[in-house]
Write the structure tokens for this entry.
Amino acid sequence: MAALPRRIIKETQRLMQEPVPGISAVPDDSNARYFHVIVTGPEDSPFEGGLFKLELFLPEDYPMSAPKVRFITKIYHPNIDRLGRICLDILKDKWSPALQIRTVLLSIQALLSAPNPDDPLANDVAELWKVNESEAIRNAKEWTRRYAMDN
Amino acid sequence: MKMSLNERLQEELEALEAILMDDISITHNDTGYPELVKTTIFPSTANEVEKQYVCVTLEVRLPEGYPDCEPFIQLRNPRGLDDSTINNLYKSTKAKCTEFLGQPVIFELIELIRENLTESNLPTCQCAVCLYGFLEGDSFTKTPCFHYFHSYCLAKHLTTTQRLFQEEQDKLPAWQRSTDGFQATCPVCREPIGCDVEELKTALPPKELESAQTFEVTSDIRLLQESMKRLFTYQKRKGGIIDIEAEENKLLLITESSEDTPPSDNSEDPGPSPSSMSERVVENGILSRGQRYDFRFNSGNR
């Protein structure tokens, strides 16, 4: 394996030793820059009870540029599209090297608690979220139940 | 003659204001009771501000009945101090409050904290960029907002953000470009900072990096990998996993109504490396290697 930057090693160790409640992230065997992630749906959100799988990749110049993150489990959310791509400023122009894997995943978990249909990525979902919020929340709960549960 | 509670407090606050002047702020509640006293404390460095590497804001909340009952202490916005230093400060201020029950204690607290800061007037925190500490001989920079970075790490941040700023500017038509030029910001709090990048660039990498451990797959990692895999397999069976190929083909059909590629059944785990992702790209022949990888990850952020 090519030399892994010390910062990535340190973050990995801390993720294992002091895990963030409701979030687990583990590097892949063959590529220590690729993380398998599970984020639990926050309490009092339509995603409560769900276990969402994500993939996270640290690019060559991390932490100077943001990790690339995507949902793997289907999710009904106005800021996450059908391919699982996430609309979140800190993953783009608001990235800072003082952010870490754990803070990024916490922000994503917070996005589940606070959907923002005014800044949509999934247009049909955002539209329904604006015109009929209760139906949108019902859909989100249904998707969580159907796709994001554990056995 | 015994003074009333309020007179004793009044006297203490007047003395504090006389000593600290503008460096202390007292907040009164609706009934005019002084409920909160706040001051930011620096180490004693004979007024050489550039040698103050740490600071903390002390908040003393005064319950009715103070000084005959203990005030509530909060230490806010610590700079250059790690968690254990802060915890020790909490312990010793608490002890001081107990010791001084019935007597004015605020100035005692300020002095206690100042002594502690003077003793540990070297950043005990980590560099937020590389996550390693500051060792003797490391070249480090203190921002005006009291955040610490190895000069080497800060230089990397500044050159990267400057390059990104320039790239964004170059994309814009001339009339939309910023006239102010590049403004460096602190990685931690985004406050504007002024730094000489050229000088920072000459700094050597932090020392602790050299002695850091290498990466090893531990049994913890194995266990977690296993449970992730189980969840993936279960959700896959339930149809809960996003099928990138199928979704992309849907998009293509809508936008171009081009060739109808059947969704491939990728039942393997979705990892691990970008190289295996791009292999699938070539298979599918929808996008080129690089494009496809970007397409999967770089979501539009508008």
User: Anything to note?
Assistant: The helical segments of chain A are 6-17, 101-113, 123-131, 133-147.
